[in-house]
């Protein structure tokens, strides 16, 4: 992807909202594009409740972002990781201040968590391995688990499952409803209200129909794997998912 961007003069921006801790051939995500954005919202790798931060080696972009965030009237000198005043120049009078600075409290919550990234990654991946093994063991004829690309070191902070296309739309919805009834939210990527469903992207509508993508999304589900849960909770998660599938399909034959 980076090579293609370079060939065509396209600036690569990395959305690393969910990929803090993920590596590709030993290189951490966020170190390939010109800019990377990392989320610290709830259920992400590090959690300050809301917000996030931007990383870049480009001095001009760093200065502009600091001004957009609220470095007006010389306040840039209070930042510890921005370029010198010569880069800021008259930017504070040329671009707007949106006042979206990270609070000192949020930063204080984030910083100690950064030191635990490897520990958190190991915990996420261990729990993911347990959940996927049990799901395939019990319901492998009704679902599949995406396979990791070789060379990628993952952070499995959520579970993606692809339900069988033998399930009807009504059965899929019943599965979602049944899981929700038991206190386990399961998101369907192809749901008409899901932000990941391309049909909801009115800001960037598809020029042509995408039937294969729509078909894939219609059975692709997402379940969060909360870091603060106890290990035993994930046995309950497996039970809820399996029992919800049973309730949805009844006696239907999926072998």
Layout: helices, strands, pairs:
Elements: H1 2-8, E1 13-15, E2 23-24, E3 27-28, E4 35-39, E5 52-56, H2 59-69, H3 85-88, H4 91-94, H5 104-114, H6 117-139, E6 143-144, E7 152-153, E8 158-163, H7 169-181, E9 187-188, H8 211-217, E10 220-224, H9 231-249
Parallel strand pairs: 1-4
Antiparallel strand pairs: 2-3, 2-7, 4-5, 6-8, 8-10, 9-10
Please tell me about this protein's structure.
The chain is α+β, with helices and mostly antiparallel strands and 255 residues long. It has helices spanning 2-8, 59-69, 85-88, 91-94, 104-114, 117-139, 169-181, 211-217, 231-249, and strands spanning 13-15, 23-24, 27-28, 35-39, 52-56, 143-144, 152-153, 158-163, 187-188, 220-224. A hairpin with a 2-residue loop joins strand 2 (23-24) and strand 3 (27-28).
Taking the sheet with the most strands, its summary is:
4 strands, antiparallel
Report helical residue fraction: 25-40%
Q: Unreliable segments (pLDDT under 50, ≥5 consecutive)?
A: none
Main sheet strand line-up: 6-8-10-9
Count helical runs: 9
Report the structural category.
Answer: alpha+beta
Beta percentage is 5-15%
Order of helices and strands: HEEEEEHHHHHEEEHEHEH
Residue-averaged pLDDT, rounded? 91
Question: Based on DSSP secondary structure assignment, what is the total number of beta strands?
Answer: 10
Shape: elongated
Global Rg: 22 Å
User: What is the end-to-end distance?
Assistant: 39 Å
Give a quick set of tags describing it.
alpha+beta, 255 residues, four-stranded antiparallel beta sheet, single chain, three-stranded mixed beta sheet
